[in-house]
Design a protein that fits this description.
Blueprint lengths: L16 E5 L2 E5 L4 E2 L1 E8 L12 H15 L3 E7 L3 E8 L5 H28 L11 E4 L5 H9 L6
Antiparallel strand pairs: 1-2, 2-3, 4-6, 4-7, 5-6
Helix pairs in contact: 1-2
Length: 159
């Protein structure tokens, strides 16, 4: 255990280690510490209720895991409803989230169409689409906004 309360091995350049500080699992590189978690929602085009059909949602989850693994993104949780997919992901500071989402949507669309062409053709006619154009993403803080506001406002007052 180090004097500053951090429990970690000495990191190699360019690698990330997990450190525990105040019961939070932060990652760190050579000169930075971080914990970047997000809630991502992808919605099916036209809100079609197609994720519950056949095995589409389980195939989407498998494909999403493949893409996230190749982009250094960890999926903590992932679940599908009839017309949308929720993911809780964790990234590193060098990840461009919009590029990841674009890749995730295009990769899953391509492979789902390869496997379920007859079914999807009935849902989308000749349009080879699957996801709506946009997405929702929100950072997941480890403290509430009020707690952080109070912490920032009281900096330097006790010294």
């Amino acid at each position: 255990m180090k004097a500053d309360g951090l429990n970690s091995a000495s990191p190699k350049r360019g690698s990330f280690c997990i450190i525990t500080f105040m019961n939070k699992d932060y990652k760190h590189g050579h000169r930075h510490k971080f914990l970047l978690r997000y809630h991502l929602i992808l919605v099916c085009k036209y809100r079609r209720r197609i994720l519950s059909a056949n095995n589409i949602s389980s195939d989407i989850k498998t494909l999403a895991t493949q893409i996230s693994d190749s982009h250094n993104i960890y999926i903590h949780y992932m679940e599908a409803d009839k017309d949308h997919l929720h993911l809780m992901i964790e990234t590193t500071p060098n990840i461009n989230l919009s590029d990841f989402v674009r890749t995730l949507k295009s990769y899953t669309t391509y492979h789902i169409w390869e496997k379920y062409t007859p079914y999807l053709s009935k849902c989308f006619w000749n349009e080879r689409t699957f996801w709506s154009d946009g997405y929702f993403i929100s950072s997941i803080g480890e403290v509430s906004s009020d707690t952080l506001k109070h912490y920032i406002e009281n900096q330097g007052k006790n010294s």
